[in-house]
Amino acid sequence: MACFVVPAVEAVAVTAAYLAAKKHEQKISAPKLANGNDAPKAEANITWSKRLSWLMGLLWGGVLLLAFEHFWHGEVVPFPPFLTAMADPEDTAEMLHEMATVGVSMAISVTAFWGIICAAAQAKLASVKKALSQEV
Amino acid sequence: MTLLITIIAAICATVVWYSCDKRDSYKLGTLSLIYWGASLMWLMDFVFEYAELKTEYFNQSFADILNDSLLGVTVVAIGLIAWLAILLIKDPKGVFKAKFRKQ
To answer: What is the tally of structural domains in chain B?
Structure first.
């Protein structure tokens, strides 16, 4: 009914965190880039803004396609109240229950999947670094 | 069917991302993430519906399957349109920049 609203709220929060992380990283890297020598070191790590951009892609992508699916089934309309379940109190209660169960599960599963991606990327980076250091 | 079609699209996008050398130029990672995000969300939807309906979930009419398949294909097309919009807006190859400079 409106399960995609929960991941959408998470997507907004993650986007805000991404923008803050990017600003913070730019502040830190600006003096280093001015010195010139530390730039390659900064590239060898997976920054928080990069990690959060993956989560943003997962969440916004899923929200966009699920919103279309709800539109397809007539559960979302392009005029107020936007969610058809809002018109009837009984449907609203059912919608809120669905958001609390399915919606929260969606947000948790996507975040868990992102955690796995981050851990795998970190492990891969560490193994590549190790292999490179052994070559030298 | 929508879940199945989206998972197939996610796998295809990931294979293309892995095999293409210009993955960053074409923002293929973004395309994969769009489909994987939707697949995971529909997977959760499926889990809850299956818990409620059990095997009855798979006894769908031909019209329902056809409608779901059409939705799946449409969703894949919308994912591609979203990816194309991101690609053109971010313009990682600087195509628009070069074009406007010439003018």
So the answer is: 1
Q: In the predicted model, what is the mean pLDDT of residues B21-42?
A: 94
Which chain B residue has its CA at the smallest distance from A60's CA?
B34
Can you say whether residue A88 is alpha, beta or left, with left for phi > 0 and alpha for psi between -120 and 50 degrees? Answer: beta
Contact present, B82 and A61 (Cβ < 8 Å)? yes
Tell me the pLDDT tens digit for each residue of B58-98.
888 999 999 999 999 999 999 999 999 999 999 888 888 88
Q: What is the mean pLDDT of chain B?
A: 92
The residues, ordered by sequence, that sit 6+ positions from A97 with a Cβ below 8 Å of its Cβ are none
Domain count across chain A = 1
Interface of B with A in 53-72 (CB under 8 A): 71
Q: Tell me which residue range forms the domain holding A15.
A: 5-135
Length of chain B: 103
Q: Which neighbouring-strand residues pair with A76?
A: A83
Considering only CB atoms, B34 lies closest to which of A57, A101, A110, namely A57
Q: Is A54 close to B75, i.e. CB distance below 8 A?
A: no
A111 min Cα distance to partner chain B (Å):
10
Chain B residues within 8 A of A54 when measuring between CB atoms: 29, 33
* pLDDT at residue number A45: 84
Q: Which residue of A has its CA nearest to B34?
A: A61
The interface predicted TM-score of the complex, written ipTM, equals 0.90
